[in-house]
Amino acid sequence: MGLSLLPKDKPKCLAVFSWAFLVLVLIFLPSNMDEFLPYHVISCDYYPNAELHTLREPCNSFYDLNLWGLTLKRAYLYVGSWSSWLYYPLFLLIPHPISHKLLGTIFFLGIISLTARLENHQSNRSWWLLRWALSFPILYQLIFDTGPVRWGLLVLFISPLLIRYIQQQKRIAIKLGIQVFLGVILFLAVEDKPFFIYLLPSLICVCLAYNWTDMQDMVKLLGNTILSIIVSATLISIYLFGTKVGDVSYFEHLRSMGQTENSSWQRAWELFQLNLSYLTNWYLYAHRNWSATGFVHDVNAHLGITLVEFGLFILWKVRHQINLSRLFWLGLGLLCNTVIFVYMQNVWAGHHFIFSYAILYLLYNHCLTYASPKIKHALLLLTTLYAFLIGLQFLFTQPFVEASRERNHIFDYIAQPEIGQNYVIVHNNWGTYYQSALYGDRQQVVIYAEPMQEYEVSRIAEVSRWLDRGILIVCRGEECNAKTLYDKFQGQFNFVPVALPTQDWQVWRSLAVGTSSSGFSETGSKERFSEATGENNSRADCVTHDLSSKRGSLI
Asked: Does the structure show a pLDDT above 50 at 168?
């Protein structure tokens, strides 16, 4: 049976429109600053003046690793460079935030396709729609990749399929090639974010769920994957123990960051409850941008609980037909994640729990293979209602101020060539830096300084003089006013507001004291730019990075 663009019966047609509506809403929603953190390598590599930024989240190789004299780039303290290189071609083609979300949509379609192949099932229209309908948490995390999670999720879904291909393949060269490929993509998942190490036990369970036959074949299965294990273990070991952060290995660096001060059974229980709440309220996956309260929160929770109950009902109905070994291994994988997450006590966000939901999603996917058409239709209607409700909530509710829609006016303004080429752009509050650093004029200089202490102000003024540029400050809050900014810069500049249709966020343009209203220094020397570049690394050593206020958990 072929696939038509739109199904003929009304329930399926309604599902298509509802989920297409939700996807479009997600693509055009305002962004969260952390979405673009994984691409910071691009920001520092693509813009020639970026190395002048030596303050918070700098581009002066502060995050890079040292591997026996070689430099390995990192986007952040515990985020590697793979997401940046993965996104780089699309960034060059479409240098706009929309390309980031389009990449997430591409990953989503790929994962949906892999899910179908895992069950080895020729799908009809309702089957494809149900996969789509049950995947909102995955869709949301792929479009709003704040983890990063894209590559990790792809590896989780593709690994059992690659092992199946290895077992089916008779040509030795192809077998070895697929094994090496599997080992490399596992390593890249760890390089992208070392958090993936926590997921290795559950990944093994997922692979066994789709490749397990009996104990006698375990030796054959191990033999067909041993090269993958050797390749991934070797690369990961070199990456974690061979690379250095200062005088310690990357592993020691991560371990020191991961020490939880408030470790307790009470906190473990709270985190366990939080993780369970993601199953019963899909809207919580967006808690970093939006907060559903009161009646809206109750509706989400009740629909989510109903969906979980429906899933248990389906499992009970098809209990005599399902593959029990698959059920066992997927269940064990879910249990492994739960135990590890609670023990580590740093898994608090949806972009962490999404890996547990992905396993649950695979379990759903298997059970629905044997479900009756009536059950499929009922589940499709329930998830369609959920999708439409969540889409409306995103469309009409206001995000937190850090992710405010009004920031788009600021991004459009500072991305103009005349701004990027004539000002040092300074971000004084969390919420705008990573986007601005990634999308703008090629000659821009973007600096993040929060809370803009004395040494930071001195550095910003220095860069301004070197480049003979004015200063443009993006900020919000009580200190975002002309007098405070004048005092912080010790009277070197007057600041005037830029007229933009914003309320919480503001932009201030500098006027150097004793200069014309254009705001550019008359005494600056552009020749000093080359000198500044040479001095940059030595000056960076004197900069103390205040990273304690950075949001998020370890890895």
From this structure: yes
CB count within 10 Å of CB 242 equals 17
C-alpha distances out from residue 258 to 51, 57, 191, Å: 29, 19, 17
CA trace torsion 294, 299, 300, 302 (10° rounding): 120
Q: How far apart are CA 382 and CA 364, in angstroms?
A: 15
Burial degree of 280 (CB within 10 A; 0-12, 13-18, 19+)? middle
CA distance 211 to 194: 26
Residue 250: per-residue pLDDT: 93
> 191, 65 in Cβ contact below 8 A?
no
For 517-532, letters b (16+ CB in 10 Å) and e give: eebbbeebeeeebeeb
Cβ count within 10 A of residue 46:
17
Phi, psi of 419 (to 5 degrees): -85, -50
Q: Are 147 and 34 in contact (CB under 8 A)?
A: no
Q: With CA atoms as reference, report the closest residue to 394 among 504, 288, 290.
A: 290
| H-type alpha helices, 120-171 | 125-133, 136-143, 150-168
pTM (predicted TM-score): 0.86
Rounded to whole angstroms, what are the CA distances from 390 to 33, 289, 304, 337?
22, 14, 11, 27
Total Cβ atoms within 10 A of residue 411: 18
List, for residues 483-508, the tens digit of each pLDDT value: 999 999 999 999 999 999 999 999 99
Neighbours of 92 (CB within 10 A): 11
Amino acid at 52: L
- What does 244-298 look like in DSSP terms, one character per residue? EETTEEHHHHHHHHT--TT--HHHHHHHHHHHHHHHH-GGGGGTTT----HHHHH
Among 210, 157, 108, CA closest to 355: 157
- Cα distances (Å, whole numbers) of residue 293 to 84, 137, 275, 397: 36, 19, 18, 11
Do the Cβ atoms of 358 and 138 come closer than 8 Å?
yes
Q: What is the spatial distance between Cα 544 and Cα 380, in angstroms, rounded to a whole number?
A: 54
Q: Which token pair is 28? A: 């055009």
CB 462, CB 492: distance < 8 Å: no
Within 10 A of 394 (CB to CB), how many other CB atoms are there? 20
E strand or H helix at 357: helix 350-367
pLDDT of residue 512: 61
In angstroms, the CA 230 to CA 131 distance is 34
Residue 258 — pLDDT band, cuts 50, 70, 90?
low
